[in-house]
Specification:
Blueprint: H1 5-8, H2 13-34, E1 39-41, H3 43-51, E2 62-67, H4 71-81, E3 86-89, E4 102-106, E5 109-111, E6 127-135, H5 139-156, H6 164-190, E7 195-198, E8 208-210, H7 211-214, E9 218-222, E10 225-229, H8 233-241, E11 260-262
Parallel strand pairs: 2-6
Antiparallel strand pairs: 1-2, 3-4, 4-6, 5-11, 6-7, 7-8, 9-10
Length: 264
């Protein structure tokens, strides 16, 4: 068995990052349980729970998922229920934020990522991503719409990676693409499809899942704590990663949060 301690052994900066994010996840889990909001570990976080019993050794983020229709409730309870050292971030609480999903951030650190300014109005520390999953009657059509919708969404929020011409074009296209996405959502809910994909604009993720693969949720150990995961997590992970139990080669093991400053 390969020794992964060179990535996140005790005393390493990466391990400090992981434990800081774990503290956020514990608080998010507490709020969700107290308010009967169903969530589950997603992406690499779920993979880490199944394959490693915690973080993937070289991973530095946590992703959870909720149903799109539960987001209004989550938005109403999360800001007032979190401890004072955490901040609920979305397009309504932070005008500089440019993603259609939410984050819960620490006020005790600072994270600088590609495409972002360092002139933040709100706390910008370590975070947990909260991805809404919405009903999807046609994964193919959603992917096509998402390519345009996501770019327009971020451009209108003045994401630094985009030019002034990108921003202008986004404002011109936005009413049309917004209407198409609205109609897509109405029809998906009207026929009550069981397929779900990540919310429009969330990086145009290509994977989708069946509701029966997720619900009812079950619990799994992650870093010594119990968190919710899809009921059929093997099928869920296979749809995303294929043979997810295979350890990737070293050149595929990437750390993303390399520029983190802690305030202690």
């Amino acid at each position: 068995m390969e020794d992964f301690s060179r990535y996140n052994g005790e005393g390493t900066k990466l391990r400090r990052v992981q434990l800081g994010i774990l503290d956020i996840l514990i608080e998010v889990d507490k709020v969700c349980r107290e308010n009967n909001i169903e969530y589950w570990l997603d992406f690499g976080t779920l993979l880490g729970a199944v394959r490693h019993g915690g973080f993937i050794p070289w991973d530095d983020d946590v992703d959870i998922a909720v149903r799109y229709e539960d987001m209004d409730k989550l938005k109403s309870v999360m800001p007032k229920s979190l401890p004072s050292d955490l901040f609920y971030q979305d397009v309504e609480t932070d005008r500089q934020y440019c993603w259609p999903f939410s984050k819960v951030r620490s006020c005790k650190s600072l994270v600088l990522e590609e495409g972002e300014s360092d002139n933040f109005e709100k706390p910008h520390g370590l975070y947990v991503d909260i991805f809404p999953h919405e009903r999807c009657f046609s994964p193919y059509l959603k992917r096509k719409l998402d390519e345009v919708y996501g770019r327009c969404f971020r451009s209108r929020r003045h994401f630094l990676a985009y030019t002034k011409s990108d921003i202008l074009l986004a404002h011109l296209i936005w009413p049309f693409i917004w209407c198409l996405v609205k109609l897509f959502r109405i029809f998906s809910n009207l026929i009550h499809v069981k397929k779900r994909m990540h919310v429009f604009g969330a990086f145009a993720f290509k994977c989708f899942f069946e509701e029966d693969d997720v619900f009812p949720l079950r619990e799994l150990d992650f870093e010594g704590h119990k968190f919710f995961v899809p009921n059929k997590y093997d099928r869920y992970l296979t749809s995303i990663y294929g043979n997810y139990m295979e350890i990737p080669p070293e050149n595929k093991r990437k750390v993303h949060l390399e520029n983190v400053i802690f305030y202690d």
